[in-house]
Protein 1
Amino acid sequence: MNRRQDSGPWWRRGWIFATTVIAAGTLIGLSVPMAFRTEPANTPITVRTTVQAGQLMSAPQVPFAGMTWRDYHGVLLPYSADNGPRDTENDLATGFTQTPRGALLAAVHITVRANMRWGPKVFEPTIEDQVIGPDADALLVAAREAYEELRGDRPDGEALGRAYVVLEGFRWQGYSPAAASVDLVSAGPGDSEVTVRAVTRVQVQWQGGDWRVVGPPGGTWAGSAAPVDSTDGYVRFPGGGA
């Protein structure tokens, strides 16, 4: 287990929670940045390169047969008996297969659980054990700071409540058995009851017998997320996801 020391800042009041998936911002983590609502849909996304582009297949097929959707504090998440997560004890999620579907499931579950909304019993072990890369420490510190700022009068360690977000779809940037990059689309309520969508780029690496999420640049998902008007061009999640 890799316990990290506090260092570095993160996003705070500029986001409304939607959940997760990430991004600890949009989803998958997941909240939708308020600033995104006035920016064009082609806002650039920043990524942390994990492998050479030539090592990635562009768009592997991901079958949805046998996948079920279960409520996770207000967010419907996909589960597969074959591809993971195999262990969901203590509200965490580990054990994904080294396949495209396993990578996709890991990206969703790890990013969602890395959100501070579920409290330190969930986000701390998720980030400490399942987020890797040079910006993982900053992500952990940011989550701790955001949690302390938002918990108010709640007892220390208590979750901040249910989320209101829907995972709508995804699009591969690339996949290999060693690493993958995927864009995840999530939707949540915005101002004046308008639905707000965002796409968050999540990268994963196969390490230590399981998929790990690569921490976003600077420990914030803001640079890895952008507004999106619709799910056109993305693979729609079936059933509970969309």
Note: The chain is about 15% helix and 30% strand.
Protein 2
Amino acid sequence: MSAPRFFCDEVISGPGERILPERIAHHAARVLRMGDGDSLVLFDGRGLEACATLVRRERSWWARIESIAQVSRESSLDVVLVQALAAADKMDWVVQKAVELGVSAIQPVRAARSVVRLSGERADKRVLHWRQVAVSACEQSGRNRVPEVRPVSDLEAYLASNPDASRRLVLEPLGGVGLKNLDEPFGPQHFLVGPEGGWTAEESAACRAAGCVGVTLGPRVLRTETAGLAAVAAMQVLWGDF
């Protein structure tokens, strides 16, 4: 089995010993029941990975860092998932699995038919929660770079912005072209997924007017928590590293 991985946003310098932050020490010793001498991996979310050994000193836990390297497990395909807000458990699922599938960022947007309404402090708290979900997904999946979870935006504001997208794709279950019929992507690809009730006619028209390309994932209508993940997986097969 591979060694457990822990996100450590503090600076990881050269080989040597360092005391572990309380969050990591608690998770390793209390949750995973690791002990003195067990192996672990620390990563800083920016590409650095350190192999280490857990060391117990009285009431504190330390990591004896043995080697450090820049290790990339990022996809060659740059996909930003633009996900309309869904119920809390569904959004957690989407963030977790999208990170595992290799997205470079997640942009939550408010849509007319979103069952969840988030703004102000509530939105900020949910974004912080989703960022921790992304960190946990990186710990599990082996990614050393934590994808950005961006602040919640209105769909209209997102469409009016000038994102770094080379192409924006919007899911239209009953229209659009199949992914396999698109040209090979170049640069960041933004993929827009509607809420539980789908896009309104006005939102679909606004997406088209903003230059989004309508795509379909076949004749079946997928749930919002399925559609984006299926699209990312298909794009990885067609143009990425699957």
Note: The mean pLDDT is 93.
